[in-house]
Amino acid sequence: MNQKTTTPTLPRWSLAVPPAAAVVLAASWGRDLGTILLVLVCLGLGGAVTAAVHHAEVVAHRVGEPFGTLILAVAVTVIEVALIVTLMASGGEKASTLARDTVFAAVMITTNGIVGVSLLVGSLRHKVQEFRAHASGGALAVILALATLSLVLPTFTTTTAGQTFSGAQLAFAGVVSLVLYGVFVFVQTVRHRDYFLPKNSTSEDDHAAAPSNRTTWVSLGLLLLCLVAVVGLAKTVSPTLESAVESIGAPLSFVGVVIALLVLLPETVAAVRASLRDRLQVSLNLALGSGMASIGLTIPAIAIASIFLSGPLVLGLDPKEMVLLVLTAAVSTLTMVTGRATLLQATVHLVLFSSFVFLAITP
To answer: What digits encode the pLDDT tens for the residues 15-63?
Structure first.
């Protein structure tokens, strides 16, 4: 007897949460947060993250990997880039280093934080997990090249004073970033798509019926709405974060790290859930893809925006950040070349991430 396959439908909470989060964002935007409004913003932020992960998985199940992870990484990065450019346009003493601090924070969070947590939960459940070293190693190579060309070289160039690029140098960095990211996306989705598929999986979702086209488009729209809400609510809560940061004696630049953590929550939750299902390659696609998109899309965007923006654009890292970047490059390379992940590698990455956060609080 033939069994009838039912098309999965979206749960009601996933339909209600994104518009509710958008309403909270509209009600709180540009206002001082009282206790009640602060609680609503925090609830809206948590709900938007949860809904974003759910809808991203619906879309990913329909379009298949690695397109699903690519959609989530690019969507949140595009919205984040729009927020960066908007904040830079508003000026202020922190505007000159905003792009650098945000991009560097995203690189450290993705390559050490998200990767470390994914390896940790996966190793605790499965002991040893395998992934495709040639895929993740290639992604890491692109990230390191982008980070060096965009965040390290400005400190050593001599055409302009300080940690800045000249107009021609910034334009070159923007073009190179787009080329590297574009070629990687082509390789990931067309030329060598099979390299980025999970090596093994214990997930029952692989055998579940795919959602319909209508459900997929609804989820895609709600995913974008969730990501707008996540980024917007993270920005809304930033004044409260600034007060909290000042109260503990940390520099205001740490607020950017906290906001980056909030913005990257959807990728983090999705990566952890994939690792728990023994789909570590999906976790690495999310983590490395988000870090790559953060540089590859931000640098070209600010290169164009700098034509209309006044004031210097500081991109070069300080020596402390360079040391962390070099150490991250070495550790990540040793992790990716093995194709196998254990608790030891997870611990090393999480120690590096903790060092980044600690030094951001006590520079």
So the answer is: 888 899 889 888 888 777 777 888 888 888 888 877 877 787 788 777 7
Strand segments (E) across the chain: 129-130, 340-341
Helix or strand or coil: residue 225?
helix
Q: Is 298 left (phi over 0), alpha (psi -120 to 50) or beta?
A: alpha
Sole residue written with tokens 């992870």? 69
Are the C-beta atoms of residues 211 and 62 closer than 8 Å to each other? yes
Can you tell me the distance from the alpha carbon of 60 to that of 66, in angstroms, rounded to the nearest whole number?
8
Length of the chain: 363
What's the chain's Rg over C-alpha atoms? 20
Token pair in block for residue 343: 């608790």
pLDDT digits (tens, 9 = 90+) for 289-326: 888 888 888 888 888 887 777 777 889 999 999 999 99
Distance CA 101, CA 97 (A): 6
Tokens representing residue 62 in the block: 């329909």
Task: Name 151's Cβ contacts closer than 8 Å, sequence gap at least 6.
Answer: 100, 103, 104, 295, 315, 316, 317, 321, 325
Q: How many CB atoms are closer than 10 A to CB 288?
A: 27
* Separation CA 278–CA 203 (nearest Å): 7
Q: Which of 90, 162, 158 is nearest to 312 (CA)?
A: 162
Using alpha carbons only, give the angle 53, 287, 61 rounded to the nearest 5 degrees: 40
CB-based contact 45:233 (threshold 8 Å): yes
Residue/partner pairs of 156-159 with CB below 8 Å, 24 or more apart: 156/316
Task: Name all domains of the chain by residue range, CATH numbers in brackets.
Answer: 81-203+237-361 (1.20.1420.30)
